[in-house]
């Protein structure tokens, strides 16, 4: 029917856009959240700190790197949570990320509940998956 022909034509016309989106998805942006395991935070505390880190990095990138943020959003906002055993190791990782020009955000806790004030709890890193893996690939999932 004429309606089916129109649908087929509309799908064909949309194909180049889908290919463009796939090309960007294949490039694959992701966020990795690096959680301090040595602080022995409870599950709820970890969830809250990961949320703070995600939002902190998101806000930073809204103005400084909006294209990267949009690409990450189009990739499904992939987030992976890994653990690290010390603040020192986290700061070394942050230095490695910065050397690759990957944006980071470290959440610093106010210390009102489970842990000492001004503790660095979670670091968020965002960028092309292979570059982020160069920084965090050696860490175990939380």
UniProtKB/TrEMBL annotation:
Keywords, alphabetical: Hydrolase
Q: Which domain of life is it from?
A: Eukaryota
A Pfam family this chain is assigned to:
PTH2
Write down the InterPro entries for this protein, in alphabetical order: Pep_tRNA_hydro_II_dom_sf, PTH2
Protein's UniProt keywords contain Hydrolase: yes
* Gene3D superfamilies for this protein: Bit1
EC number(s) given by UniProt: 3.1.1.29
One MF term in the entry's GO annotations: peptidyl-tRNA hydrolase activity
The reactions it catalyses are: an N-acyl-L-alpha-aminoacyl-tRNA + H2O = an N-acyl-L-amino acid + a tRNA + H(+)
For this record, an example GO cellular component is:
cytosol
- The keyword Hydrolase appears for this protein: yes
Q: What residue intervals traverse the membrane?
A: none
Query: What family is it from?
Result: Belongs to the PTH2 family.
The name this protein carries in UniProt is peptidyl-tRNA hydrolase
